[in-house]
Amino acid sequence: MKSQYLKKLKMPNNPGVYLFKKDNKILYIGKATSLKRRVRSYFSKDLIATRGSLILDMVVRANKLEWQETDTVLEALILEANLIKKYKPKYNTKEKDNKSFSYVCITKDKLPRVSIIRERTLDKKKYKKVFGPFTSAKQLREIMKIIRPIFPYFDDDSLKKNNKEFYKQLGLVPEKEYKKNIKNLKLFFEGKKKSVLSNMKKEMITFAKKKEFEKAAIMKKRIFSLGHINDLTLIEDKDVYPLGSPWRIEAYDVAHMSGKNMVGVMTVITNGEINKNQYRKFIIRTQADANDTGALREIMNRRIHHVEWGLADLIVVDGGKAQMNVVKNVLSGFNFKIHIVGVVKDDRHKPKALMGDKDLIKKYKKEILIANNEAHRFAIAFHKAKRNANFIK
Asked: How much is the pTM?
Protein backbone atom coordinates (compact mmCIF):
# COMPACT_ATOMS: atom_id res chain seq x y z
CA MET A 1 0.00 0.00 0.00
CA LYS A 2 1.36 3.41 -0.97
CA SER A 3 1.03 6.60 1.04
CA GLN A 4 -0.85 8.19 -1.87
CA TYR A 5 -3.75 5.83 -1.15
CA LEU A 6 -3.93 7.15 2.39
CA LYS A 7 -4.27 10.74 1.18
CA LYS A 8 -7.49 9.84 -0.63
CA LEU A 9 -9.11 8.60 2.56
CA LYS A 10 -10.92 11.05 4.82
CA MET A 11 -10.09 9.35 8.08
CA PRO A 12 -11.47 10.91 11.29
CA ASN A 13 -9.55 11.95 14.39
CA ASN A 14 -11.91 9.87 16.53
CA PRO A 15 -11.13 6.61 18.36
CA GLY A 16 -11.81 3.36 16.58
CA VAL A 17 -10.47 0.24 14.91
CA TYR A 18 -8.66 0.01 11.56
CA LEU A 19 -8.33 -3.01 9.27
CA PHE A 20 -5.53 -3.50 6.72
CA LYS A 21 -6.76 -5.80 3.95
CA LYS A 22 -5.47 -7.59 0.87
CA ASP A 23 -8.51 -7.46 -1.41
CA ASN A 24 -11.21 -8.87 0.91
CA LYS A 25 -8.88 -10.72 3.28
CA ILE A 26 -8.08 -9.02 6.59
CA LEU A 27 -4.35 -8.94 7.29
CA TYR A 28 -4.17 -6.89 10.47
CA ILE A 29 -6.51 -5.22 12.97
CA GLY A 30 -5.50 -2.40 15.31
CA LYS A 31 -7.12 0.13 17.64
CA ALA A 32 -6.46 3.85 17.84
CA THR A 33 -7.11 6.92 19.89
CA SER A 34 -7.10 8.90 16.64
CA LEU A 35 -7.64 6.79 13.54
CA LYS A 36 -6.18 9.44 11.26
CA ARG A 37 -2.90 9.85 13.12
CA ARG A 38 -2.48 6.18 14.01
CA VAL A 39 -2.86 4.94 10.45
CA ARG A 40 -0.57 7.70 9.20
CA SER A 41 2.19 6.31 11.44
CA TYR A 42 2.33 3.12 9.30
CA PHE A 43 3.69 5.20 6.44
CA SER A 44 6.55 6.82 8.34
CA LYS A 45 10.15 6.28 7.23
CA ASP A 46 11.11 4.62 10.52
CA LEU A 47 8.34 1.98 10.49
CA ILE A 48 10.75 -0.93 10.44
CA ALA A 49 12.57 0.51 13.47
CA THR A 50 9.41 1.20 15.45
CA ARG A 51 7.21 -1.78 14.49
CA GLY A 52 9.58 -4.31 12.87
CA SER A 53 9.87 -6.06 9.52
CA LEU A 54 6.68 -8.11 9.99
CA ILE A 55 4.42 -5.04 10.09
CA LEU A 56 6.35 -3.45 7.21
CA ASP A 57 5.65 -6.60 5.18
CA MET A 58 1.95 -6.33 6.08
CA VAL A 59 1.71 -2.70 4.93
CA VAL A 60 3.43 -3.56 1.63
CA ARG A 61 1.01 -6.42 0.97
CA ALA A 62 -2.15 -4.49 1.92
CA ASN A 63 -4.14 -2.74 -0.81
CA LYS A 64 -7.23 -1.66 1.13
CA LEU A 65 -7.94 0.05 4.43
CA GLU A 66 -11.22 0.14 6.35
CA TRP A 67 -12.17 1.44 9.78
CA GLN A 68 -14.94 1.60 12.37
CA GLU A 69 -15.32 4.58 14.70
CA THR A 70 -16.15 4.20 18.39
CA ASP A 71 -17.27 6.67 21.06
CA THR A 72 -14.29 5.94 23.32
CA VAL A 73 -10.83 4.36 23.38
CA LEU A 74 -12.23 1.73 25.74
CA GLU A 75 -14.81 0.66 23.17
CA ALA A 76 -12.10 0.58 20.49
CA LEU A 77 -10.13 -1.91 22.61
CA ILE A 78 -13.20 -4.12 23.05
CA LEU A 79 -14.08 -3.94 19.34
CA GLU A 80 -10.48 -4.81 18.41
CA ALA A 81 -10.63 -7.91 20.64
CA ASN A 82 -13.96 -9.03 19.15
CA LEU A 83 -12.75 -8.58 15.58
CA ILE A 84 -9.45 -10.39 16.20
CA LYS A 85 -11.39 -13.28 17.74
CA LYS A 86 -13.76 -13.39 14.74
CA TYR A 87 -11.26 -13.04 11.88
CA LYS A 88 -7.93 -14.23 13.40
CA PRO A 89 -5.82 -11.98 11.10
CA LYS A 90 -2.49 -13.45 10.05
CA TYR A 91 -0.30 -10.56 11.15
CA ASN A 92 -1.95 -10.10 14.56
CA THR A 93 -1.14 -13.66 15.56
CA LYS A 94 2.34 -13.48 14.08
CA GLU A 95 3.21 -10.16 15.74
CA LYS A 96 2.31 -11.38 19.23
CA ASP A 97 2.69 -14.73 20.94
CA ASN A 98 -0.86 -16.04 21.44
CA LYS A 99 -0.01 -17.24 24.93
CA SER A 100 0.43 -13.65 26.08
CA PHE A 101 -3.11 -12.61 25.08
CA SER A 102 -5.54 -11.89 27.92
CA TYR A 103 -9.25 -12.62 28.30
CA VAL A 104 -12.19 -11.51 30.44
CA CYS A 105 -13.83 -14.65 31.81
CA ILE A 106 -17.20 -15.00 33.57
CA THR A 107 -17.72 -18.10 35.72
CA LYS A 108 -20.71 -20.46 35.81
CA ASP A 109 -21.38 -19.80 39.53
CA LYS A 110 -24.80 -18.79 40.88
CA LEU A 111 -23.19 -15.41 41.54
CA PRO A 112 -20.76 -15.27 38.60
CA ARG A 113 -17.24 -13.99 39.15
CA VAL A 114 -15.33 -11.95 36.58
CA SER A 115 -11.61 -12.59 36.10
CA ILE A 116 -8.72 -11.71 33.78
CA ILE A 117 -7.05 -14.90 32.51
CA ARG A 118 -3.95 -15.29 30.33
CA GLU A 119 -4.11 -17.53 27.25
CA ARG A 120 -1.48 -19.92 28.62
CA THR A 121 -3.69 -20.86 31.60
CA LEU A 122 -7.12 -20.49 29.97
CA ASP A 123 -9.54 -23.42 29.88
CA LYS A 124 -12.59 -22.02 28.11
CA LYS A 125 -14.79 -24.97 29.14
CA LYS A 126 -14.63 -23.82 32.76
CA TYR A 127 -16.31 -20.49 32.01
CA LYS A 128 -19.79 -19.45 30.95
CA LYS A 129 -18.51 -16.59 28.81
CA VAL A 130 -15.06 -15.59 27.54
CA PHE A 131 -14.24 -12.24 25.91
CA GLY A 132 -11.00 -11.54 24.06
CA PRO A 133 -8.26 -11.81 23.06
CA PHE A 134 -6.97 -8.48 24.38
CA THR A 135 -3.48 -7.68 23.15
CA SER A 136 -2.45 -5.71 26.26
CA ALA A 137 -2.96 -7.12 29.78
CA LYS A 138 -2.13 -3.69 31.23
CA GLN A 139 -4.84 -1.98 29.19
CA LEU A 140 -7.35 -4.71 30.05
CA ARG A 141 -6.75 -4.16 33.75
CA GLU A 142 -7.38 -0.45 33.23
CA ILE A 143 -10.61 -1.27 31.37
CA MET A 144 -11.85 -3.30 34.32
CA LYS A 145 -11.00 -0.47 36.74
CA ILE A 146 -13.06 1.94 34.65
CA ILE A 147 -16.14 -0.23 34.21
CA ARG A 148 -16.32 -1.90 37.63
CA PRO A 149 -18.05 1.09 39.30
CA ILE A 150 -20.61 0.99 36.46
CA PHE A 151 -21.15 -2.79 36.57
CA PRO A 152 -20.05 -3.87 40.08
CA TYR A 153 -18.96 -7.53 40.15
CA PHE A 154 -17.13 -10.13 42.19
CA ASP A 155 -13.64 -11.22 41.19
CA ASP A 156 -11.43 -13.98 42.62
CA ASP A 157 -10.20 -11.70 45.40
CA SER A 158 -13.77 -11.22 46.58
CA LEU A 159 -13.83 -14.78 47.90
CA LYS A 160 -11.15 -13.86 50.41
CA LYS A 161 -13.37 -11.13 51.84
CA ASN A 162 -16.56 -11.13 53.86
CA ASN A 163 -19.10 -11.47 51.02
CA LYS A 164 -21.93 -9.68 52.83
CA GLU A 165 -19.70 -6.71 53.54
CA PHE A 166 -18.44 -6.76 49.97
CA TYR A 167 -22.01 -6.85 48.68
CA LYS A 168 -22.85 -3.89 50.89
CA GLN A 169 -19.92 -1.88 49.58
CA LEU A 170 -21.00 -2.48 46.00
CA GLY A 171 -24.66 -1.84 46.69
CA LEU A 172 -25.54 -5.28 45.36
CA VAL A 173 -27.43 -6.96 48.16
CA PRO A 174 -30.23 -8.35 45.94
CA GLU A 175 -29.08 -11.29 43.82
CA LYS A 176 -31.43 -10.23 41.03
CA GLU A 177 -29.68 -6.86 40.65
CA TYR A 178 -26.25 -8.49 40.63
CA LYS A 179 -27.27 -10.77 37.76
CA LYS A 180 -28.53 -7.74 35.83
CA ASN A 181 -25.10 -6.16 36.25
CA ILE A 182 -23.44 -9.28 34.84
CA LYS A 183 -25.91 -9.33 31.94
CA ASN A 184 -25.13 -5.70 31.11
CA LEU A 185 -21.40 -6.37 31.49
CA LYS A 186 -21.68 -9.15 28.89
CA LEU A 187 -23.59 -6.89 26.51
CA PHE A 188 -20.97 -4.17 26.92
CA PHE A 189 -18.14 -6.55 26.03
CA GLU A 190 -20.16 -7.66 23.01
CA GLY A 191 -20.12 -4.03 21.83
CA LYS A 192 -23.81 -3.43 22.55
CA LYS A 193 -23.59 -0.22 24.57
CA LYS A 194 -26.93 1.10 23.30
CA SER A 195 -28.68 -1.99 24.63
CA VAL A 196 -26.93 -1.57 27.98
CA LEU A 197 -28.01 2.07 28.25
CA SER A 198 -31.56 1.10 27.34
CA ASN A 199 -31.61 -1.60 30.05
CA MET A 200 -30.22 0.73 32.68
CA LYS A 201 -32.68 3.51 31.85
CA LYS A 202 -35.58 1.05 32.19
CA GLU A 203 -34.24 -0.04 35.59
CA MET A 204 -33.94 3.59 36.70
CA ILE A 205 -37.55 4.29 35.68
CA THR A 206 -38.73 1.13 37.46
CA PHE A 207 -36.96 2.17 40.69
CA ALA A 208 -38.48 5.64 40.45
CA LYS A 209 -42.00 4.24 39.94
CA LYS A 210 -41.54 2.06 43.02
CA LYS A 211 -40.37 5.18 44.88
CA GLU A 212 -36.95 3.57 45.45
CA PHE A 213 -35.34 6.92 44.79
CA GLU A 214 -31.91 6.07 46.22
CA LYS A 215 -31.55 3.14 43.81
CA ALA A 216 -32.85 5.29 40.97
CA ALA A 217 -30.20 7.93 41.76
CA ILE A 218 -27.43 5.29 41.81
CA MET A 219 -28.59 3.98 38.45
CA LYS A 220 -28.72 7.51 37.05
CA LYS A 221 -25.08 8.08 38.01
CA ARG A 222 -24.06 4.77 36.44
CA ILE A 223 -25.86 5.69 33.22
CA PHE A 224 -24.04 9.01 33.17
CA SER A 225 -20.69 7.34 33.90
CA LEU A 226 -21.20 4.89 31.04
CA GLY A 227 -21.88 7.74 28.64
CA HIS A 228 -18.94 9.78 29.97
CA ILE A 229 -16.17 7.23 30.21
CA ASN A 230 -12.91 9.02 30.95
CA ASP A 231 -10.42 6.61 29.39
CA LEU A 232 -7.23 8.68 29.12
CA THR A 233 -5.51 5.97 31.21
CA LEU A 234 -5.93 3.65 28.22
CA ILE A 235 -3.99 5.91 25.84
CA GLU A 236 -0.47 4.70 25.15
CA ASP A 237 2.29 7.04 24.03
CA LYS A 238 2.27 5.48 20.58
CA ASP A 239 -1.47 6.09 20.31
CA VAL A 240 -1.04 9.53 18.82
CA TYR A 241 -2.07 12.04 21.45
CA PRO A 242 0.17 12.65 24.46
CA LEU A 243 -1.28 11.67 27.91
CA GLY A 244 -2.42 14.87 29.66
CA SER A 245 -3.50 16.55 26.49
CA PRO A 246 -7.22 17.36 26.54
CA TRP A 247 -9.05 15.08 24.20
CA ARG A 248 -12.15 17.27 24.12
CA ILE A 249 -12.58 20.96 24.97
CA GLU A 250 -16.09 22.34 25.47
CA ALA A 251 -16.77 26.10 25.62
CA TYR A 252 -20.00 27.73 26.79
CA ASP A 253 -21.51 31.18 26.34
CA VAL A 254 -24.86 32.91 26.90
CA ALA A 255 -26.50 35.60 24.75
CA HIS A 256 -29.58 37.79 25.28
CA MET A 257 -30.83 41.39 25.05
CA SER A 258 -31.76 42.68 28.50
CA GLY A 259 -32.83 39.18 29.44
CA LYS A 260 -35.03 38.65 26.39
CA ASN A 261 -34.63 35.75 23.94
CA MET A 262 -31.96 34.26 26.23
CA VAL A 263 -29.98 31.41 24.67
CA GLY A 264 -26.80 29.47 25.33
CA VAL A 265 -24.41 27.37 23.28
CA MET A 266 -21.71 24.73 23.54
CA THR A 267 -18.81 24.58 21.09
CA VAL A 268 -16.28 21.77 20.84
CA ILE A 269 -12.63 21.40 19.92
CA THR A 270 -11.36 17.84 19.53
CA ASN A 271 -7.59 17.27 19.42
CA GLY A 272 -7.01 20.92 18.60
CA GLU A 273 -9.51 20.98 15.73
CA ILE A 274 -12.90 22.73 15.64
CA ASN A 275 -15.65 20.10 15.65
CA LYS A 276 -18.83 21.84 14.46
CA ASN A 277 -20.79 18.59 14.32
CA GLN A 278 -20.66 18.57 18.13
CA TYR A 279 -21.92 22.15 18.62
CA ARG A 280 -25.16 22.42 20.60
CA LYS A 281 -27.80 25.14 21.17
CA PHE A 282 -29.86 25.75 24.33
CA ILE A 283 -32.97 27.92 24.69
CA ILE A 284 -32.97 29.12 28.30
CA ARG A 285 -36.17 28.13 30.09
CA THR A 286 -35.69 29.00 33.76
CA GLN A 287 -34.33 32.57 33.74
CA ALA A 288 -36.75 35.48 33.38
CA ASP A 289 -34.11 38.20 33.75
CA ALA A 290 -30.54 38.85 32.59
CA ASN A 291 -29.02 36.23 34.91
CA ASP A 292 -26.02 34.87 33.02
CA THR A 293 -24.84 32.57 35.83
CA GLY A 294 -28.36 31.18 36.28
CA ALA A 295 -28.53 30.50 32.54
CA LEU A 296 -25.12 28.79 32.64
CA ARG A 297 -26.32 26.59 35.52
CA GLU A 298 -29.34 25.54 33.47
CA ILE A 299 -27.16 24.76 30.45
CA MET A 300 -24.73 22.64 32.47
CA ASN A 301 -27.51 20.72 34.19
CA ARG A 302 -29.11 19.94 30.84
CA ARG A 303 -25.84 19.13 29.13
CA ILE A 304 -24.67 16.75 31.86
CA HIS A 305 -27.64 14.47 31.25
CA HIS A 306 -26.76 13.91 27.60
CA VAL A 307 -24.76 10.73 28.14
CA GLU A 308 -24.33 10.22 24.41
CA TRP A 309 -22.17 13.35 23.93
CA GLY A 310 -19.09 12.05 25.74
CA LEU A 311 -17.08 13.70 28.51
CA ALA A 312 -15.03 16.90 28.22
CA ASP A 313 -11.46 17.05 29.49
CA LEU A 314 -11.58 20.85 29.69
CA ILE A 315 -14.52 23.23 30.03
CA VAL A 316 -14.12 26.89 29.02
CA VAL A 317 -16.60 29.49 30.30
CA ASP A 318 -17.05 33.12 29.36
CA GLY A 319 -16.42 34.90 32.67
CA GLY A 320 -14.52 34.55 35.93
CA LYS A 321 -14.91 32.93 39.33
CA ALA A 322 -18.72 33.13 39.45
CA GLN A 323 -19.12 31.24 36.18
CA MET A 324 -16.38 28.75 37.05
CA ASN A 325 -18.03 28.01 40.41
CA VAL A 326 -21.37 27.34 38.71
CA VAL A 327 -19.79 24.67 36.50
CA LYS A 328 -17.79 23.24 39.39
CA ASN A 329 -20.90 22.90 41.57
CA VAL A 330 -22.87 21.11 38.84
CA LEU A 331 -20.01 18.69 38.10
CA SER A 332 -19.37 17.94 41.77
CA GLY A 333 -22.82 16.36 42.05
CA PHE A 334 -21.56 13.61 39.75
CA ASN A 335 -18.03 13.38 41.20
CA PHE A 336 -16.43 14.42 37.91
CA LYS A 337 -13.10 16.21 38.07
CA ILE A 338 -12.83 18.24 34.89
CA HIS A 339 -10.51 21.20 34.39
CA ILE A 340 -12.33 24.55 34.14
CA VAL A 341 -10.92 27.75 32.62
CA GLY A 342 -12.60 31.16 32.72
CA VAL A 343 -12.03 33.78 30.02
CA VAL A 344 -12.32 37.25 31.57
CA LYS A 345 -13.22 40.03 29.11
CA ASP A 346 -12.57 43.78 29.01
CA ASP A 347 -15.13 46.53 28.26
CA ARG A 348 -14.95 45.73 24.54
CA HIS A 349 -15.53 42.03 25.24
CA LYS A 350 -11.95 41.15 24.39
CA PRO A 351 -10.07 38.52 26.46
CA LYS A 352 -7.89 40.19 29.10
CA ALA A 353 -7.16 37.28 31.45
CA LEU A 354 -7.52 33.52 31.76
CA MET A 355 -8.38 31.93 35.10
CA GLY A 356 -7.64 28.33 36.03
CA ASP A 357 -4.71 25.91 36.03
CA LYS A 358 -1.69 27.98 34.92
CA ASP A 359 0.19 25.09 33.30
CA LEU A 360 -2.90 24.01 31.39
CA ILE A 361 -3.56 27.58 30.23
CA LYS A 362 0.04 28.01 29.10
CA LYS A 363 -0.04 24.78 27.10
CA TYR A 364 -3.48 25.20 25.52
CA LYS A 365 -4.00 28.96 25.42
CA LYS A 366 -4.57 28.96 21.67
CA GLU A 367 -7.25 26.23 21.80
CA ILE A 368 -8.94 27.87 24.81
CA LEU A 369 -9.25 31.22 23.06
CA ILE A 370 -10.47 29.64 19.81
CA ALA A 371 -13.13 27.65 21.69
CA ASN A 372 -14.24 30.74 23.59
CA ASN A 373 -14.36 32.88 20.45
CA GLU A 374 -16.38 30.21 18.65
CA ALA A 375 -18.81 30.04 21.57
CA HIS A 376 -19.31 33.83 21.54
CA ARG A 377 -19.79 33.92 17.76
CA PHE A 378 -22.18 30.95 17.81
CA ALA A 379 -24.20 32.36 20.73
CA ILE A 380 -24.65 35.76 19.05
CA ALA A 381 -25.73 34.14 15.77
CA PHE A 382 -28.23 31.89 17.57
CA HIS A 383 -29.62 34.82 19.60
CA LYS A 384 -30.12 36.95 16.47
CA ALA A 385 -31.87 34.08 14.70
CA LYS A 386 -34.22 33.53 17.64
CA ARG A 387 -34.91 37.26 18.05
CA ASN A 388 -35.69 37.65 14.35
CA ALA A 389 -37.97 34.60 14.39
CA ASN A 390 -39.91 36.04 17.33
CA PHE A 391 -40.09 39.44 15.62
CA ILE A 392 -41.65 37.90 12.49
CA LYS A 393 -44.25 36.17 14.64
From this structure: 0.58
